Amino acid sequence: MRTTACRFPESLLMFSRLSVPQSDPPRSPRETLPTMYDLPSEEPQEPGLPDEFHDLQPRLLSSTLRLPTYASDNRFIGTNLNLYYDSRHPLWYKRPDWFLVPGVSRLYDGVDMRLSYVVWQEGVSPFVAVELLSPGTEDEDLGTAERLGDRPPTKWYVYEQILRIPYYVLFDRYTDSFRVFGLQNGRYQELNLSEQRLWISELQVGIGVWQGTFEGVTRKWLRWYDAASNWLPTDAERFDEQEQSLNQAIERAESAEEKAQALAERLRSMGINPDEIV
Hints:
- This protein is of the alpha+beta class.
- Helices cover 27% and strands 22% of the residues.
- It contains 7 helices and 12 strands.
- The chain has helices at residues 10-15, 29-32, 52-64, 119-122, 138-142, 155-162, 235-269; strands at 75-78, 83-84, 93-94, 98-102, 117-118, 128-132, 167-172, 177-184, 187-190, 197-200, 205-214, 217-225.
- The strands form 3 sheets. Strands 1-4-6-7-8-9 form a 6-stranded mixed beta sheet. It has a 3-stranded mixed beta sheet with strand order 3-2-5. The chain has a 3-stranded antiparallel beta sheet with strand order 10-11-12.
- A hairpin with a 4-residue loop joins strand 10 and strand 11 (205-214).
- The model is unreliable at 1-8 (pLDDT under 50).
């Protein structure tokens, strides 16, 4: 019976040093490699632990994302979730602040919420990764950090060379700097942005910098926009818009009724019965 993930189980430490026995025909990764149930789902000692902005910004990205070509149950959004990327080193992972994987089930095997995202089990890498720059992780996020000894590769290297994530988005809340790197000829190239926006044609949605208030905080945020360059609303904003439209419709109806009553009274004062007018 599977259990929830624990921190660095001894069986996995041993697995990371041993080769996987082969069979003919070969068994599936589900049978031979660790799944999300086997791998650690958190590491409290990891640098760059989330602050309030790292909580709010991913929530805004998740709540405004609308993909015309992918149903809501045919995509996965990860927020500060372990992303395991190398089956030869099953304990190695990165933890993007936000990432999107279109074309996979919203739930693991269609039934369970994910503890982590294990690439060798899912078979699909993220299409967009977003990192919110922090002083403690900035060098690794920007690709300026060097790999040390036998330690895991840097985040930049993993995203570019191993996972080959097509779009790597960086946002610095201290300077409101918004940068996007696209995978071109196997290397990340910084993309030219127009008005701090980027249209992602493959997904038919754009991402950009929006000035506004979210959860009571007014500042610049990353959020998604549609083909008409309109910022996509959160569920709360859509509810407010619907409520406002309903109130306006009621006001118009009440105004029309008042005008009709006034006209009827005017006709009666002139000796005309409004009920007899066809």
